[in-house]
Amino acid sequence: MAAAATVTSSYTAKAQIKTENNMKSVIVYFTHSGNTELAAKQLAEVTGAKMIRLIPEQAYSSDDVDWTNEQSRCTQEHLNQSLRPAIKPIDIDFTKVDTVFIGFPIWWHEEPAVIRTFLDKYSKQLINKVILPFCTSYESPMSEADATLKKGYHSLKIRKGLRLPAQPEEIKKWIKK
Ligand SMILES: Cc1cc2nc3c(=O)[nH]c(=O)nc-3n(C[C@H](O)[C@H](O)[C@H](O)COP(=O)(O)O)c2cc1C
């Protein structure tokens, strides 16, 4: 009984935030080592949005993400900006969504190529949606990925992103901007 009450009150709190922001949102994210998934969970706590993980058809091995190796998959995907690693299909009805959060780890000071695959593949459905990117990184600021996303996808409404983790108040302020 107590557990049910907790679930109900947390559901109500989340529903309230959603109503406050007047948005139907979804969190689409890619993670390799789990940090961006934690960030997506933090965002889901604040927004009540559903989380959807982007999964590459071919998983990244530790050799693939070796940025010290010029021949590694991640370095090649950075050097050749036209590469689009295939991703597994995702289950979103975009007609029911008006805000799409897109999360990723910074790779080579920008969004990983998997994110470009997602943006290319779903670009028609994403037109006129509010897109809010977020990242995790060792130290790179979100502004670097903001710049590459803006350059590559100027027809989409991509707003200024946020590096997570962040305080809930900062997240709410970012969403409301
Ligand atoms: C291939 C690769 C490139 C990276 N490049 C950067 C970078 O340019 N700047 C930075 O601050 N962190 C960089 N990182 C660190 C990741 O952004 C950071 O560890 C991130 O939180 C990982 O997220 P994840 O656990 O969701 O995969 C890189 C990591 C990898 C694997």
Keywords:
single chain, 177 residues, alpha/beta, Rossmann fold, 5-stranded parallel sheet, 41% helix, binds flavin mononucleotide
- Helicity, as a percent range: 40-55%
Strand order of the largest sheet: 2-1-3-4-5
CATH class: Alpha Beta
How many separate domains?
A: 1
| Straight-line N-to-C gap | 39 Å
Average pLDDT across residues?
90
Strand content: 5-15%
CATH architecture: 3-Layer(aba) Sandwich
CATH homologous superfamily label: Flavodoxin domain
- By CATH, the topology is Rossmann fold
SS field, number of helical segments? 7
Listing every helix as H and every strand as E from the N terminus to the C terminus, the arrangement reads HEHEHEHHEHEH
Shape: globular
Structural class, please? alpha/beta
**Low-confidence runs:** 1-22
List of distinct ligands in this structure: flavin mononucleotide
Q: What is the total tally of β strands?
A: 5
